[in-house]
Amino acid sequence: ADICFTSSTVPKMIVDISTQSRVISYGGCLTQMSLFILFACMDNTLLTVMAYDRFVAICYPLHYAVIMSPCICVFLLLLSVFLGLLNSLVHYLTTLQVTCFKDVEIASFFCDPSQLLDRSCSDTLIKNIVPYVLGTLFGFFPMSGIIFSYYKIVSALLKIPSSGGRYKAFSTCGSHLSVVCLFYGTGLGTYLGSLASYSPRKGMVASLMYTVV
């Protein structure tokens, strides 16, 4: 998912740099946006699943093999793919409603869904409500699941008497937690930054962090 997520934007960016061209076709833009959303949502869901996995491993270690059985893991994987496809399809169909989409310039190195909707001339209600609804469903709820999982993990770790035991248990979460902070931190900085302090340059740097780095 990470490789595909990065590959949805980086190859086109490299071609643009080498050819000094900043143009993308309408069809290419829709394709890039759809793939970007698909794998971004999969990343989102998989990070939540991984947080749940750590929660079960630390809080219910004796039941881990039963709760996280191979069947459950396959189900969670398929669920993340389905949610990614659903999110991508809704964005795709919404963007198709935009009829005056010609010679549009966006301050990003890829077809950012939020910027595309911002520059549309369609119904204001659609372009305002759709990002918030999808952001809540596919962004807020997964992030809430991660926060809740780590809240329970920290609560369980505080009950371990030895500091060595706490460190050993929490060290298994280190890499996941760092990715979560980088992914959500830069993502939230991009999409939830106040309009007063937002600048295109800062937005592109933040986008580069969570899409590539």
From TrEMBL:
Alphabetically sorted, this entry's keywords are: Cell membrane, G-protein coupled receptor, Membrane, Receptor, Transducer, Transmembrane, Transmembrane helix
Q: How does it sit in the membrane?
A: Multi-pass membrane protein
Signal peptide residues on this chain, from the entry's feature table: none
Q: Where in the cell is it found?
A: Cell membrane
Q: A Gene Ontology CC term for this entry?
A: plasma membrane
Per UniProt, residues of the G-protein coupled receptors family 1 profile domain are: 1-213
Q: Which Pfam families match?
A: 7tm_4
Q: Listed GO molecular functions?
A: G protein-coupled receptor activity; olfactory receptor activity
Residues annotated as transmembrane: 64-86, 129-151
| Function statement | Possible taste receptor.
* Name of protein: Olfactory receptor family 7
> Which gene carries the instructions for this protein?
OR7
